[in-house]
Task: structure prediction
Amino acid sequence: MTEAIGRIGVLGGGQLAWMMAQAAPRLGLELWVQAPSEADPAVALAAGRILAPPEDAVATAQLAQHCQVITFENEFVHLEALRNLEAQGVCFRPQLASLAPLLDKYTQRCFLRDLGLPVPEFRLLTATEQPQSYPVVLKACRGGYDGLGTRILHTPAALDQIRQEWAGRPAVVEAFVTYERELAILAARDVAGQIVHYPLVETQQEDQVCRRVLVPAAVPDEVTLQAEAMATTLLLALDYVGLLAIEFFLTPEGKLLVNEIAPRTHNSGHYTLDACVTSQFEQHLRATAGRPLGPPDLQVPAAVMVNLLGYETGERDYQATLKALADLPHSHVYWYGKNQARPGRKMGHVTVCLEQFDPTLAWAQARQIEALWVQ
Ligand code: ADP
Result:
């Protein structure tokens, strides 16, 4: 019999690792993190830490000496360097071959297209590329998150300017999709090959950053089935172990286009902490530890999640605001403990579980939370 996994290492120490670190003891697991700074949210909660950026593979070799398996909080890893460790017997979940096609936006798009999953029209940006029509969306192949690295461009002059600014930085240029809504789904696969799907959610972005999420999405069942089928195709094609998120555009014709795959826990799934039987963090840890998955079911009729985004730079006392948010009925406030705010930075989130599924009321609730947050 192989030894049961009791200690997991995570590359990254932000809020996703912070929420994983809270889930770990409930499963009898110890979580170690590899994070650049003592001040990173997960460091104080982790059972152990290696202070280094997630892409530092020498530090990961040290982490591997303490942990039986290593997983990921984000995409900013140095795959080539980690491959040496994998070859020496370090266990990564998901395995590195599952991550390889996903870490770069261009290779990810090619992988999805070749798998037959619908994606927006895309090309690699070249020095001479001149799109036939505008707007277009330009995306840096690596290093983008929360819309940093994604630009919507309306004119050839704007494209030329970015080409100069990003000199030599590989990027994808893709068609601007006039979508009806943005949707997302979480799915997980365990070592034995069992797959679970979480409910399809609607996400709302502003300036390319997720602001709020409604679960379940108000869409016909056939759209949910499409999303689940695509998630299954992807998990099987990647031979993936762990949890991943898929972001979609829903077209006016009711078809889904895949926008992006996040091979990890995801902001669109924070509602699972309070609204589902098994949170995304517990689920990912279960799969990573080689345990069977838990039920993904919603335990409430609906829920809405709002990101608390920094709107100013510096330090401030948020206690009164957080109390007002916590006093809302059925609300759950998460504050990531980041020591510095800056505009657009994810400082925390609030989930409100709802007694009925009514999208109009749910979005109104989200607006109320946002009004309390910025007042
Ligand atoms: P990130 O990796 O930073 O999350 P995404 O590629 O997910 O960037 O894009 C962020 C947001 O930008 C999307 O959620 C969507 O609102 C908008 N966006 C991205 N690509 C397109 C597109 N092709 N057409 C229209 N909007 C887009």
In short: The chain has a mean pLDDT of 95. The chain is about 30% helix and 25% strand.
